[in-house]
Design goal:
This protein is an alpha/beta fold. It has three domains: 92 residues, no CATH class; 125 residues, Glutaredoxin; 98 residues, Tetratricopeptide repeat domain (Serine Threonine Protein Phosphatase 5, Tetratricopeptide repeat). It is built from 14 helices and six strands. Strands 1-4-3-2-5-6 form a six-stranded mixed beta sheet. Strand 2, helix 2 and strand 3 form a beta-alpha-beta unit.
């Protein structure tokens, strides 16, 4: 079987940058040689801090900006969210100014050499570090997996031993896939990766990286039964709103129609809205899935709710227009019968 290139890239990148010089439990380096572009300067060890390294040219970084903004708004003064780039100021500052309120957290430009105190050994961005109020690095990885450890640190329930075990397993997965996946070694790698992600999920039942890895493997194996089983096994009551919405949106837009599992997509979307009923983007996701299912009247009603929450969001208005067009077509076809 010829392996999809995009899936291979996803498989290799989920745990990229796990092996690094800055170990968990280490004191966080000071945020020195930083030109602050937005917000007041931040010093680690004063409050819980999220430090994310990003760039204006990085697609996944840009996609994650609303997520970081949401985290900053959710936790307020309890957490300082910091985005650091090592690009030139004339690239970063206009980008941040254009983003406006969509990028509503501390943003700085860190000297390239200084940034290596964090990023030495890390192979890709975006990459986040979670630092507790004592100034200790307690978690690091792709920001997709940040929500649960951050919530635990804020609540005072963070289990360092538990997350250390997960980190070691993630390091093992990176070692497993770094040499590449091909027709000769794929079954062995898939089997080992599924076993290792099983162990991660036994510790952290909704670990975002492990879930995405398992989904990617199921897609590469073209195993629709395995793909659905992975999703069904997820404890929905433990999913955070962002992760639930990401799963819903991802399922609803799968190119392979047999992988869409719209019933599960709708359930994940409902979970996101249940947790954050005033988040317009989550309502929009749910509305889009309902439209896909032919429930256009309900989709229209939900999209109107989303627009009421964010009246300036043009994409929501475009979605509403589309739903109304679909409803007119549906009504016309019904009358034609």
């Amino acid at each position: 079987m010829r392996l999809p290139i995009v899936s291979l890239m996803l498989l290799a990148s989920l745990f990229a940058g796990r092996v690094m010089a800055l170990e968990l439990g280490s004191p966080a380096p000071a945020l020195e040689k930083v030109t602050w572009v937005k917000g007041a300067p931040v010093a680690v060890g004063k409050t819980i801090t999220v430090v994310e390294f990003w760039a204006t040219w990085c697609g996944p970084c840009k996609k994650g900006i609303p997520h970081l903004t949401k985290l900053q708004k959710t936790y307020g003064d309890k957490v300082a969210v910091v985005g650091l780039s090592s690009e030139e100021e004339d690239a970063v500052r206009p980008f941040v100014e254009k983003m406006g309120a969509e990028m509503d957290y501390h943003v700085g430009i860190m000297d390239q050499e200084a940034s290596q105190t964090y990023m030495d050994g890390v192979s890709g961005i975006p990459h986040s570090f979670l630092i507790d109020a004592a100034g200790t690095v307690v978690w690091a990885g792709h920001p997709m997996g940040l929500d649960k450890p951050l919530a635990d640190v804020v609540a005072g329930t963070f289990d360092a031993k538990r997350y250390s075990e997960v980190s070691k397993l993630e390091d093992g997965i990176q070692e497993l896939v770094k040499g590449g996946v091909n027709a000769d070694n794929q079954e062995e790698i898939f089997t080992k990766a599924l076993e290792m992600t099983d162990r991660i999920l036994a510790i952290d039942a909704v670990n975002a990286n492990a879930v995405q890895m398992r989904m990617a493997i199921a897609q590469m194996k073209e195993d629709k039964g395995l793909f659905r089983a992975i999703l069904e096994k997820l404890p929905r009551d433990q999913l955070g709103a962002e992760q639930a919405n990401e799963l819903a949106a991802d399922l609803a837009t799968k190119e392979d129609l047999a992988m869409r599992n719209l019933d599960l997509a709708l359930a994940f979307a409902a979970r996101a809205v249940e947790l954050e009923p005033k988040e317009a983007s989550y309502i929009d996701t749910r509305a889009r899935i309902l439209c896909e299912l032919g429930m256009t009247e309900r989709a229209i009603a939900l999209e109107q709710q989303a627009i009421a929450l964010e009246p300036e969001n043009k994409k929501l208005g475009e979605a509403l227009d589309y739903f109304r067009t679909v409803e007119k077509l549906r009504a016309g076809l019904t009358e034609a019968k």
